[in-house]
Design a protein that fits this description.
Number of helices: 12
CATH topology of the largest domain: Aspartate Aminotransferase, domain 2
Distance between the termini: 46 Å
CATH class of the largest domain: Alpha Beta
Oligomer: single chain
Structural class: alpha/beta
Shape: globular
Helix content: 25-40%
Order of helices and strands: EHHEEHHEHEHEHEEHEEHEHHH
Strand content: 15-25%
């Protein structure tokens, strides 16, 4: 059998899919691991909205891992904890970027067979936590409050194919203001804030170190027309026999379409993104200028005028009206 085997996937439970970044395949696979008494490792945001890898033994703990986090994850003692669980005979699902999976396998230096299941994500590159921290502080100062909730990509309000970060800001009087922005998104897609090593990533290929590779299935209509409903579709690459077996075990919970790899290609499956022109200038400015300058020059931020607010409100009302129809 030739790997990878490629599928477009949507979880049949719409609530699961809407709580996920794309089609919900991570939830489907991790559900089985947890139901069999296994351990799931993945990335969450802590109370300071910093990204950390943590250990989950329940679905409630695992649910914090769903959704995108566009910042580098702090691994802390994760590799040691994974090894301890494996040595104790526990089944482990580890999810992360391709380089994190490769790092774990290099650290373990032992084949644990079916005990260890690895799932990696298609990755543009890893953004700087420092830029994220400055961005968050800028939003709090600008909106005179404290951030209490973040959605890096608000699929519920803006659809799967858009990319809007939504922040809930608590004011001094206890009221909550919703702030929708594309500033950090624009910084991310400029590729100026990702690590230098990401421009030479060896995993930007159809060959990956994991059992299953997952990601957003952009331009899914090229591979399987009429499958996209703008609520999220996962691109799934089955890379090993173990990945295939895990997929077979959860198929009944999924809507799936078999696809050709040739019709499913994205840039991260072909090559790393090039180091962009102006990256050095960005980091000089980041070190010398206030973040408001960075947001305007590199994040395409514009002050929100009354007309902008009216147009935004009108767009939201229009979307709600379409849903009711």
């Amino acid at each position: 059998m030739d790997f990878p085997i490629v599928y477009a996937v949507k979880h049949k439970d719409l609530d699961v899919r809407m709580a996920s970044r794309s089609g919900g395949i991570f939830t489907a696979v991790s559900d089985v691991v947890l139901e069999k008494g296994g351990i799931v490792y993945g990335c969450v945001l802590d109370e300071k909205f910093e990204a950390f890898h943590v250990r989950a033994t329940t679905k409630e703990e695992r649910n914090r891992m769903r959704g995108s986090k566009y910042i580098q994850s702090n691994m802390a003692d994760t590799f040691r904890n994974v090894k301890a669980d494996l040595e104790a005979g526990r089944k482990v699902l580890f999810s992360g970027t391709s380089c994190q999976v490769a790092g774990l396998l290099a650290f373990l230096r032992k084949d644990y067979g079916e005990q260890l299941f690895c799932m990696d994500i298609l990755c543009h590159g890893v953004p700087s936590p420092l830029v994220w921290k400055e961005y968050l502080q800028w939003q709090e100062e600008k909106n005179h409050g404290t951030c209490v909730e973040i959605d890096f990509r608000n699929k519920k309000d803006f659809g799967w194919d858009d990319h809007v970060e939504t922040l809930k800001i608590e004011k001094g009087d206890g009221t909550i203001e919703t702030v929708n922005s594309k500033v950090f998104r624009n910084l991310f897609y400029s590729h100026k804030i990702i690590r230098l090593s990401c421009y030479k990533c060896p995993y930007k290929d159809i060959t990956h170190p994991s059992d299953i590779t997952i990601g957003d299935f952009w331009r899914v209509d090229n591979a399987t027309p009429n499958f996209d409903d703008n609520k999220g579709v996962s691109l799934v690459l089955l890379n090993t026999e173990q990945g295939l077996a895990a997929f077979e075990a959860v198929k009944e919970n999924l809507d799936i379409r078999s696809c050709r790899i040739e019709d499913s290609m994205q840039v991260p499956l072909k090559k790393p993104f090039k180091r962009p022109e102006g990256r050095d200038e960005f980091w000089r400015d980041f070190g010398d200028k206030p973040f408001d300058y960075i947001a305007k020059k590199y994040g395409h931020y514009r002050e929100r005028t009354l007309l902008w607010k009216i147009r935004t409100k009108f767009k939201k009302l229009k979307k709600k009206f379409r849903k009711r129809k």
